[in-house]
């Protein structure tokens, strides 16, 4: 138990800064052949870490960070924790009376300290050992866990400059975590075009046809026991990791709710990919945006949920133009990323016919969500009004469930409309007339009409 989390988190980070300071000095000593240059920075062991002592130490142990990774992380957070440890990198090359270009780094009048760049990281690791550049390439790759989970970032430099000229820094939410020990969810942005999907419902609120629920239970079983099958049963020797499912059916039939509940009952996080932020008119940008999501999720036990997936995973067309070729290349790219993703992916679409067969035949489960039958509709009506409104004596839910073919989402819309009517009357009672009028309005959305004359008092 940590008595003072902030103090102990800071102490751990300051110890890491002291080690970074020693490393920087030794690297420069090696590079400039100063006294003691025969020693190597790699011989300077990073501080020992223990479990449950600080957020940083827990991260080192949980992620099994090696010396190169710890050095990279320390460098990225130095300007925010202890900027003076990098001041020595402001040194002047006496031969040309200017800074050492190989040190990288930039400065800013508002900050005054040395801001490390990708080149700075390369100098510290590989300045005296050029073959070690491969470790730098790995650390700055978008597939590395630091980059994938947005722990560190290499800011984009001017297009005319080398890629490594960008500032190398720790992201704000990870710096906050290392200081406070409190995690925050990734924020929806162009660098992470997805957001957490949550639901207030419980599993018993899920009302589906028996055959549909049977297929959904198969997914739940995989989420519960898939890891055991892949490792203990050695199924991983025969099949690729991960699980892929398609939910298809009319709007409002429970596709999104089911995905959210699968995550909830298996204690996982589910992220809904925001297609408007993913799809770009520029060739290559859509793949880049999607790659960020897959890279982050590959290190997490997340479910990725793509709604209206046919807009991204639609049928490939004849290549009659460059746009067609690009669309087909995108489809192929998505197929490959999904096949290689070790987690669970759920695609949702209103029309299965819009999906490319190359996708559907590679999915483990195709679940068709249908408009609920009379018995399912009755349960949905009962669940909707429970603990929200009181039903008047003239309400015949069983008759309404039998006569009106409505999806769960539509029933919730009707509940909202009825509740508004009741509260305007300063009461909680909903009458048969309220229900029928709200049903009529819901049908009008689809240009459908119903005859409610004489039905207000049906029993």
UniProtKB/TrEMBL annotation:
The keyword Nucleotidyltransferase does not apply. InterPro entries: 26S_Proteasome_ATPase, AAA+_ATPase, ATPase_AAA_core, P-loop_NTPase. Residues 241-373 form the AAA+ ATPase domain. SUPFAM superfamilies: P-loop containing nucleoside triphosphate hydrolases (SSF52540). It comes from the Bacteria. GO terms for molecular function: ATP binding; ATP hydrolysis activity. SMART domains: AAA (SM00382). PANTHER family: 26S PROTEASOME REGULATORY SUBUNIT (PTHR23073). Belongs to the AAA ATPase family. This is AAA family ATPase. It comes from Pseudoalteromonas byunsanensis. The lineage of its organism: Bacteria, Pseudomonadati, Pseudomonadota, Gammaproteobacteria, Alteromonadales.
